[in-house]
Amino acid sequence: MSILITGGSGFIGTNLIDALLLKNYTIVNFDKAVPLKKSHTDFWIKGDIMDLAGMEQVFNKYQPSIVIHLAARTDTLSDLLSDYDENTIGTQNVLDAIKQTKSIKRAIITSTQYVYKSLTKPFPDFDDEYIPHTVYGQSKVLTEKFTRDSEMECVWTIIRPANIWGPWHMRYPKELWKMIDKGLYMHPGKKPVIRTYGYVKNIVHQIIAMMEAAEVDVHKKTFCVGDNPIDSYLWLNTISKQLNGKTVNHLPISIFKTASLVGDILRKVSIPFPLYSERFHNMVEDYYAPTNITVNKFGVNNSNLDQNVAETISWIKGEGKDFFDYWKNK
Asked: Count of domains in the chain?
């Protein structure tokens, strides 16, 4: 069976291609960006989901059996919905291309945990109940709505990744993991903050399991993908102890509040500052998703946090080090 992945050059896509190669699938990576991993170049077709005609030509040429749609803008930096056209117009183009390609039997469409966040009602009652968090989350609500309204004839599934980390993540090593390694990260207060993380190889395992599952188990269904929710301090402290042998220190909430207000003022005059109110609230608010349903149904690759952190650090200091100036000589 042949699999076409949109956005396969990125973080999740790189890990997904590695896993699919082990299972001897035929792969096409449709992406405007060069693959992060040089060995994946043979599977890469340069293209943009914003170019429907170009994408239809690729779909028609390769006649894939399965489409896994990962391509998206995934940051939360903009407050303009139009800046996330790849998630809206681009997804609509992908859906149109799928509908016109009769060889396609399955489609997995990627959304985000950010389509729903509520401090009073943690979980929605229905898949199409939305309280989007950030404009990025709003754009992914449209991703889901377009999918549900698409009338695709193939079996389709929506996945909502939580906070995903692991090898080939290109931002954490330059920001959070670097701060932790330097001993600069301090944790706000001692109250547990329950968050949902996902080791990338675990969600790749879940994606493939859904792809291979019986139709009745996945058709027109939505799954949050990731690991079971945990106290964020446990995740951060595990990283710290393996990077530098130190335990992450706690600081009073009042210090973080003051610093975040300073950050708000500086950001208004375009002066960058690592902490501001929105980021502070994200650090101290519970935000968990029903990933336990997905874990129970489809499993994980490895549930051992220590081993997954060790694997990620090995990548940062090994194969991945040349991407990051800080880690080159570590």
From this structure: 1
